[in-house]
Design a protein that fits this description.
The chain contains 9 helices and 8 strands. It has helices spanning 11-20, 25-39, 49-58, 74-84, 108-120, 129-134, 141-163, 190-199, 246-268, and strands at 42-45, 62-67, 95-99, 123-125, 167-169, 204-212, 232-235, 239-240. It is an alpha/beta fold. Strand 3 (95-99), helix 5 and strand 4 form a beta-alpha-beta unit. 40% of the residues are buried.
């Protein structure tokens, strides 16, 4: 199946394609090595966390990597993290991450290269009303209904990929934190629902992670951090998904992400 145009009006074909899309393992490993050299993340872990992650993956669990979200670079730092942390290397080429649809539809040769690159890194387009508003699209009842259908299909696609053997990375905050970088925003329940639905079929663990790029980088809104700010990363113990209540899962995950952020902020001071 050819790569479909990524647009809300075309969401059925989009998610049919990405439900079955498989990354190139060779490209994923090459890109991971490149991004690890560019970003050079400084990684620490809780005592015993690496062994716990390796054991969870060896037992067949899917990992949901769950960091705070402050910059447009965070997704690339996740790739670099999976490259540099031995316990996570097995997810390279077998993990996906929800991404803005704008990454998939840019024009010209650079746009085609970007599309192939994000596909190779496991990006999965996820529509958001705020992105539609930013593009000047009026949110009519028809647009809202189509958006709700697309969100449902996106969730079904994510669950299917987890069950099929992929792991996942995702930003539970839903949007970047542009003001209080040291304070994790309230977590939305979308990823919790996805993890819980997948856990009915396979083992799933959530991996809390904290990112910091220094006190307050000159501009957290543009992907211009390589060479200027070395990301500090802290990884906690994986949390098994054993509850069917998304609120309870959020209550478990939020303080752990915040604890990881506290650790990296202290290291950045």
């Amino acid at each position: 199946m050819r790569r479909p145009h990524v647009g809300l009006e075309n969401f059925e074909r989009v998610y049919e394609y990405y439900r079955h899309h498989e990354q190139s393992m060779a490209f994923a490993r090459f890109a991971g090595a490149v991004l690890a050299r560019i970003y050079r993340p400084d990684i620490t872990c809780d005592d015993g966390a690496e062994d716990a992650i390796a054991d969870a993956l060896a037992a067949g669990n899917r990992v949901v990597i769950s960091p705070n979200h402050t910059t447009a670079d965070d997704q690339y730092v996740i790739v670099a993290l999976a490259q540099k942390l031995p316990a996570l290397r097995s997810v390279r080429g077998r993990a996906f991450i929800p991404a803005e649809p704008s990454l998939f539809g840019r024009s010209g040769v650079p746009g085609k290269i970007l599309r192939r690159s994000v596909d190779g890194l496991g990006a999965l387009p996820t529509f958001r009303l705020e992105d539609l508003r930013r593009r000047g699209i009026e949110i009519t009842d028809e647009v809202r209904h189509r958006y709700e259908q697309a969100i449902l299909r996106a969730s079904e696609t994510q669950v299917a990929k987890l069950v099929a053997g992929h792991s996942m990375a995702g930003f539970w905050e839903g949007t970047r934190n542009r003001i209080r970088y040291a304070e994790v925003q309230p977590l939305r329940k979308g990823i919790a629902h996805t993890a819980i639905a997948a856990s009915e079929h396979v083992g799933v663990v959530v991996l809390p992670v904290g990112f910091s790029y220094g006190g307050e980088p000159d501009d957290y809104q543009r992907p211009v951090l390589p060479g200027r700010h070395q990301p500090k990363v802290h990884v906690a113990h994986p949390i098994p998904v054993t509850t069917a209540d998304p609120d309870k899962l959020v209550e478990l995950v939020h303080p752990e992400i915040q604890r990881c952020v506290d650790i990296v902020m202290a290291r950045s001071a």
